[in-house]
Amino acid sequence: MLPKGPRPRRRVAVVGAGLSLFARRALETGKELSYYAASAALESAGLRRRDVQAVVMASAPDAFDGVHMKGEYLSDGAGGWRKPYLRAYVGGGSGVFSIISGWTLVASGLFDVVLVVAEEKMSPTQPHPQAAFISIFDHTIERPLGPNLLWIFSLEQSRYMHTYGIANEDIARVSVKNKHNALGHPAAQLGAELTVEEVLASEVVAWPVHRLMVSPISDGAAAIVLAAEEVATRISDRPVWVEGIGWALDTSYWGNRDLAYPRYVEDAARMAYAMAGITEPRKEIHVVEPYDPFAYKELHHLEGLLLADRGKAPEDLANGRFDRDGPLPSCPSGGLMGVGNPIAAAGLMKLCELYWQLRGEAGARQVPNSPRRGLAQAWGDLMQIGTVAILGVR
Amino acid sequence: MARRRRPADAAPPEATQTTRTIPGVSHPLRGTPLREADLTRGAVSLERWEPALSYRWDSGVAIGRFLEGLREGKILGVHCRRCARTVTPPRAFCEICFVPMDEWVELADTGTVNTFSICFITWDMRPLRVPQVPAVIEIDGTSPRVGFLHTLGGLRGRTVERIRREVRLGLPVRAVWKPAGQRTGAITDILHFAPLGRRR
Amino acid sequence: MEPSVAIIGIGLTPLRSVSPDVSFREMIFEAATRAYADAGVTPREIDTFVTVAEDFHEGTSITDEYTPDQLGAVRRPVQTIAGDGLQGLATAYMLIRSGIAETAVVEAHSKASNIVHHEQILALALDPTFERPRRFNPHAVAGLEMRRYLHEAGVGPEATARVVSKNRRAALTNTYAAYGADIGGDEVLASAPLADPLRELEVSRYADGAVVLVLASAEWIADRGATPVWIRGIGWATDEPSLSGRPWGTAVYARMACQAAYAQAGIRSAVGEINLFEVDDTYAYKELQHLEAALGLEVGEGARLTESARTANGQLRVNISGGNLGMGYGYDASALFRTAVTAHQLRGTAGPGQLKDIHSALVLSWRGIPTTTGGAVVLGAP
Predict the structure, then answer these.
(1) Residues 6+ apart with CB under 8 A from C11
(2) C97 vs A275: CB contact, 8 Å cut-off?
(3) Cα–Cα distance between C107 and C215 in angstroms, integer?
(4) What is the nearest CA distance from B31 to chain A, expressed in angstroms?
(5) Whether A220 contacts A36, CB under 8 Å
(6) B52: which chain A residues are within 8 Å (Cβ-Cβ)?
(7) Which domains does chain C have, with CATH numbers?
(8) Percent of chain C having pLDDT more than 90?
(9) pTM of the shown model
(10) What ipTM did this prediction achieve?
(11) Which of B51, B52, B95 has its CB closest to that of C74?
């Protein structure tokens, strides 16, 4: 049983959602990608830019775009011209954090309608975007070792597998599920029908991680429109309510933590469950979009979200629990693995997915039995931050 | 403010990969994927910029002393009197108790492998024939699960199968230091950590 | 509306041109320790944490990673605003107003001394296609704006030189300031041109420092007791990001931010109702532009007020702290350095430079070149 949380003063709903295509390398600038997603979200909400009172932007490292203070650069594409505009940046957690940012603006009472935009343009970095990640490590005692982004994931996956006796076959199944699910996603970069064998036959990039367990680098943008209750009920035929939010940041001394379990994801989930009044998440969450930049992460996070027992998510996956037509559909969108991973945009894409799923508008990806509550989660920094949002319809 | 959305707007799109539409939006999703060929044959215009970003970070009290210790061939830690943790890398304050930490401890230069990986790509995505083996080393003399990032070396194998026979979680290792004259007060004064003794 | 959120703890390290003995973590730990002691709380009693930082100022991508430890915020809700210090303050304020937090912490810091070539970083903020390829010194953006401002204002460079002299002298009584000095207007006019008409002495010098503020709701304060500096209103705005197409003479973002803050605070006439104006003066001419925004004046009237020494001899109290010119400039942290010293003024704890009869103050910030983003906060005495 989980404790109840604080009562926010105002209810906030999602009233529109939009995306750009996700692509390994888009012709468009970050401004243009932001505009595509933002204008689509406004159209879906039946609103114009002048109806928006504030804009929040989520975008991860400036090093990708090669623009310092890139929030400023992106502001006009995101609809922020002559508006209160701000950017919260919590690494990979940013995409789901963006709705928390937007929620804060509306729930505070200062704004009634807020546009939330998440953008990422990773392709400019040469020779390869992944090289930009060396600068996330400690500048004095880690960077001189030449650390690779892949080290983070492989070290964590290795510890997770060892602690719970998980085999790589179990993890490969996530790639299969998500790339298959992505075949029905309109923005998807890399939907495919794969087998476990094909995933394990792909080259080892950093053992135990194989290439087909890594989500693709991407350019893309996503956006949603948030409205206060009085406005939402007037302009939307079916508002999707923000029922719970939570976030937690663990210590930067990640070598002092056991990487087998993301306790900070649990911290964030508990905060969100308490606010939503959820006491039995496995029954009360009907669809979940956990963060899956690498295949094992979906499983790791499902456990941190208290939706699977520690070490048991792989077994649940093998038993079909997380299939789109299973008891708890997980990543029905196809996730980062299948749709693409323009970091912040991918997180907000998961919230767009929940919006459509809860309204019965997800088409071929629709999970059955009219889900009424969904949870999206993102993760980032040095295996440190969990960001969680719970959406629901009446 | 606009009107309520009509029920017809909510009709689901056709469910194939080729239909790139989303509910409530009249046009397909926008974005123009480029291929490598578009760039190499000059079909798109590009601007290039090489940032010259240099920083000289102040190490401060705790890391400054840690680096001095490394120069002397020692791994240092600090102890919190309140929660009784001994930790490394050292810090000037306990992040849990939120009080200054100034009880310094010389730790052993041995430890155990908490986790490791076998990596065939450099940080800037060049392939490696001889893989790097990053690891978190729990340093002896610290509280449980306390360690830092470094690399393993002195291994005979160069393939995943062979290295996995030499390295496992819990493997005892020892720091292999640069010769004293070559140490500069950096994390790289430790060349790598190597297995203690040989395994049969 | 009745103010519902206040600053109850202030921790500011004295600003200095270099701080080689401490790491950024240690500097922030000091500010945080002071702020918590000042508020009479422990970090465990803080519900939510907001930090302000940009990757390229720190030299670390996802600099958010390195924020929780030195605030005592491990495994707590922590977020980083990549933006102006007042946007960070606004975020903490809104979190409390939303009802999900009763207490909050805001942190910002500057280790500007650790950046080897500031111009390389400033250049990186210019549009990569249209602006950066010209390879001009980024301070020229300020030079362009200053020339346009002087033209529209109908004043000469003596007006901005006067700002430097006034502010550096004022900093002499601010114990937190790094650059208090007795400098005359003619020295400023004689200093080397940087990007004409901008002169070297008109540009704030970088400083290192850390600031932590503790915020609480009115209910919490009624329950626990504290000396509150009330946040009566707060606003922020972004105008045109490109150099082309922006209004050069008037700071539209500042006018918008002030309007929002004044509306919330119920301020109808700033000059009559606000006793202290702490406005961004990263470049001397910006003080004039920002003063005009704060007082709702035409372009140039701020310059004439300063010329008539109304702002120096106490009739209109502007940048008594010494401003960024006198205190030192720490990028996005500057807004919160100024907020901290202003809060001290309102509380009566500002030391030798303490003003009398001060009930309300405005802090107006700007993110620096090449942005058109700034914030405004109206603070009220306990």
Answers:
(1) C30, C31, C32, C33, C34, C35, C36, C37, C38, C210, C211, C212, C213, C340
(2) no
(3) 11
(4) 5
(5) no
(6) none
(7) 5-116+207-228 (3.40.47.10), 136-202+230-380 (3.40.47.10)
(8) 96
(9) 0.96
(10) 0.97
(11) B95
A2, pLDDT greater than 70: no
**Rounded mean pLDDT, A359-388:** 97
Backbone CA torsion sign across B11, B14, B15, B17: negative
Looking at per-residue pLDDT, the higher value among C310 and C143 belongs to: C143
Given this model, what pLDDT does residue B8 score?
Answer: 37
Chain-wide mean pLDDT for chain A?
Answer: 96
The per-residue pLDDT for range C213-238, each reduced to its tens digit, is 999 999 999 999 999 999 999 999 99
Give me the CATH number covering residue A60. 3.40.47.10
Whole-number mean pLDDT of chain B?
Answer: 90
Confidence category of residue C313, pLDDT binned at 50, 70, 90: low
Domains held by chain A: number: 1
Q: What is the pLDDT of residue B57?
A: 98
Q: Are C241 and A76 in contact (CB under 8 A)?
A: yes
Q: Which pair of structure tokens corresponds to residue B158?
A: 């160069």
Is the per-residue pLDDT at A3 higher than 70? Answer: no
What gap in Å lies between CA A39 and CA A159, rounded to an integer? 43
Which residues of chain C are within 8 Å of residue A105 when distances are taken between CB atoms?
94
**In whole numbers, what is the pLDDT of chain C averaged over residues?**
96
For residue A269, the chain C residues in CB contact (below 8 A) are none
Q: Smallest CA–CA separation between A166 and chain B, in Å?
A: 14
| Domain hosting residue A102, numbered range | 12-126+216-392
DSSP 8-state assignment for residue C196: T
Instruction: Return the residue of C nearest to B98 by Cα.
Output: C72
Phi then psi for B86, rounded to 5 degrees? -115, 125
Contacts of A153 (CB under 8 A, 6+ apart): A206, A209, A214, A293, A294, A296, A297
CB contact under 8 A, C75 and A381: no
Answer yes or no: is A137 within a domain: no
Q: How far is B82 from chain A (nearest CA, A)?
A: 18
